[in-house]
Amino acid sequence: MTHGSLALFLDESASKFPERTALVHEDWTLTYRELHESSSRLAGLLVHHGVGVGDRVALSCPNTPWFTIAYFAILKIGAVVVPLNVLLKASDVAFHLDLVGAKVMLCGQGRLDHEPEVQALEGFRASRSETFIVLTTDTVALAPELSAHPTLGSLSWQQVEPRWETAHTGGEEVAALLFTSGTTGVPKAAELTHHNLRCNAEAGEVLFGADDMNPDTYLATLPLSHAFGQTVVQNTAVAFGATVVLLEHFEEHRALDLLELHRVTFLAGVPTMYWSLCDAVTQSAGLARKAASLRMAVSGGAPLAEQVHHDAHRLLGINILQGYGLSETSPVAAFSRIGYAPKVGSIGTPVPGVRMQLLEPGTWEPIRSVDPMAIGEIAIKGPNVMRGYYDDPQATRAILQDGWLRTGDLGRRDVDGWFYVVDRVSDVVIRGGYNVYPSEVEAVLCGHPEIERVAVAGIPDERLGEEIAAFVVLREGARVDADKIIAWARERLPAYKYPRSVTFLEKLPVSPTGKILKRVLGRGTSVTTSPRRSLEASNGEVGSLRSLDLIGPRTDG
């Protein structure tokens, strides 16, 4: 068993590689020595404000060095990190703070143009939390709404001793509370221990070839507030003394520029990001050279379409490795084997120390069939599985039994032991008594030459119970109509599977982490074909990366 605090990763890397670059954000660079000193100063400051072992400290901060500084400062004390998505609205912030009894809230930089910080403050004021601290030393650019609250500058944090001995925390103590997205109910907080998170980060050596003597340079495109970003990027990088280049908001051209500028070797993203990168290169082939330094690319989120996998290889020269995980599993549970021919569409095999099995849906009984096409609910057991949901024994009992965690994802296992996610239990459409898996329909529609992106969901139908509806984003310049898409699908799918309606959208609704929000698409009564229209991203949603093509935690709850 791996013992001790997750914060020891930073202590050890700062000791071994003090002058190696740890974090890069715009024109701000921190070495491991500087990161360690900054985290130690903040730890001392938090203790001065009454934070102690086991206290919950909320952290609402975009992808800047302040997130990592604060994350490890909280852990060094022996307190519990409660990362919040920066796009939460005030009411959601207050709900999350009170659900876990957060004592202190640390907020991002508080710039005048940052609405998220204002929402965070309003949420804090509506909660029972005691202290609100803005993570900035620049009080000149501070939003007026935040000026009445302490900042690191006003607290003279630079005068705090830059050394703080990491608390002797047991591996089974809770390190972080990560919220589920609440797509099937109210959000719950998964209790991840130091042991959970250390094991998952250390697995990077086997899964990704991480090596502290030949460290990678990571591009953090996804929120560090999410398990995917925390473990696969931040914690793995710190464990192996690697460099993280931080990107606050994904934009494909900016991402390509950073890949080239910093010679990034490791890219983790969601399918929508790879779509965007491929689109950018399609429009300007010369951009492909910007990704030339990449050693590894991994994708999490909704299933990665086979076409995107092939486009990324053809246009960017990268093979996107696939895997699987949940916030409740820290998040990595399965991964494609390095050195083996990729099985496009597979999430790989269980990572070392982890077991996976398929259950009869709705039961705890393993499926009896050995047919490689047999479908069951994926269950996971191993050192990565959460301790439970914070202060919710009923929800914990529903998902955990004898160390096994049921995921809510339907999957199958081939003869070589590789797993495939078929769909979410909750996404399955029951049309006239037939089970239809949206991912199968989406895979077919993605092959249409004029479709760029697509999502399939069930909509209410008086006769059949549910009907199949497709929500389509067309490629630039496409002129196909709904009837032609339906006819095209009808030729390639069984009668009970092809969509009866097509809605054209400018964008698919996604969470901040890029997951398509099918519950938004499926709302309301029946859907008929409609003119092309815009459905903007739902920025207030809590991000979730379930059903992966790499390591994307499913956080539906």
TrEMBL record:
Keywords recorded for this protein, A-Z: Ligase
Ligase is among the record's keywords: yes
Gene3D superfamilies tied to this protein: 3.30.300.30, N-terminal domain of ligase-like (3.40.50.12780)
GO molecular function: acid-thiol ligase activity
Keyword Ligase tagged: yes
Start and end residues of each AMP-dependent synthetase/ligase domain: 10-390
UniProt xrefs under InterPro entries: AMP-bd_C, AMP-bd_C_sf, AMP-binding_CS, AMP-dep_synth/lig_dom, ANL_N_sf, ATP-dep_AMP-bd_enzyme
Organism listed in the record: freshwater metagenome
Name assigned to this protein: Unannotated protein
Family, similarity comment: Belongs to the ATP-dependent AMP-binding enzyme family.
Stretches assigned to the AMP-binding enzyme C-terminal domain: 440-515
